[in-house]
Design goal:
6-stranded mixed beta sheet; 268 residues; alpha/beta; globular; Purple Acid Phosphatase, chain A, domain 2; 14 strands
């Protein structure tokens, strides 16, 4: 190809040939302290490398019940999770207790629709990104957002008590969706439940992949709302989802090319 041909080529086509063909993502949700998943997850990722996310509710505590010991945290560390959404089991109404939970995690927590009205430093990130491959070469930037199911309405008296404000999920992620460049991937780790995930996909069609939890649904195949695939792997570590997305130059974004529910625990 002559230089003049390259200069005249649409940049989306050029991006397609200079970035990896595929990004692989594994995801679990709603483990609820079911342990024993780490060896299988390590084996799967050794055979077929990919990012590993969890969509929340891994702990045995809750938003109002706190345990000083959460054995599942060691399991998550051993599995090598890259990031985790905050579910209502990781969340706590008391700021210091959510902070204590987050401090035990060796992977980042992400939540895009939770704010603190008292201006305290958050123990989680509103957004993350991962570069695939992570070696500085031209690759794919994967933007990761997290959503927590709303515990009370904006303006509720509980905001003054606890300082937490829960934003509308779609409104919280829309600015990120609008600013995500063509050719970058946008993934949402949702702890909203399947029905709200469907509404989210309708309102924010820029999302490349919704990985869901909270409602304990197990989908044998992704559910599509428009072009947005929604994946639910089910609770208790029975399965991990494996999603493989490829760049589609005609759309300037990624699409789901292959999917599997892979068994983890035989008797959770």
């Amino acid at each position: 190809m002559r230089y003049s041909d390259v200069r005249a080529t649409p940049w989306r086509w050029l991006a397609a040939v200079t970035r990896p063909k595929m990004v692989r993502i594994y995801h679990t949700s709603d483990l609820h302290d079911r342990r024993g998943v780490a060896p299988r997850l390590r084996e799967l990722r050794q055979e077929r490398p990919g990012l590993l996310f969890d969509c929340g509710d891994s702990l045995r505590g809750s938003q109002s019940l706190y345990y000083s010991s959460e054995p599942i945290v060691e399991e998550l560390d051993a599995a090598g999770y890259d990031a985790q959404a905050i579910g209502n089991r990781e969340f706590h109404y008391v700021f210091s207790l959510l902070q204590a939970r987050a401090s035990r995690m060796h992977h980042p927590l992400v939540c895009t629709n939770l704010r603190d009205t008292k201006g305290r430093a958050l123990p989680f990130s509103p957004a993350l990104h991962f570069d695939v491959p992570p070696n500085g070469m031209r690759g794919v930037r994967v933007h990761v957002l997290g959503l927590l199911v709303t515990q009370y309405r904006v303006g509720s008296p509980w905001e003054r008590v606890f300082g937490w404000r829960f934003l509308d999920p779609a409104e919280a992620i829309e600015p990120y969706a609008k600013s995500t460049p063509d050719g970058d991937m946008l993934v949402v780790l949702s702890h909203l439940g399947l029905s709200l995930d469907s509404k989210l996909a309708e309102r924010v069609p820029r999302i490349d992949l919704i990985l869901g939890g909270h409602s304990h649904d197990t989908l044998e195949a992704p559910r599509y709302v428009g072009d947005v695939p929604i994946v639910h792997a089910g609770p208790y570590g029975r399965f991990v989802s494996r999603s493989e997305l490829a760049y589609r130059p005609d759309r300037g974004r990624f699409g789901l090319e292959d999917f599997a529910l892979v068994p983890l625990l035989r008797s959770p």
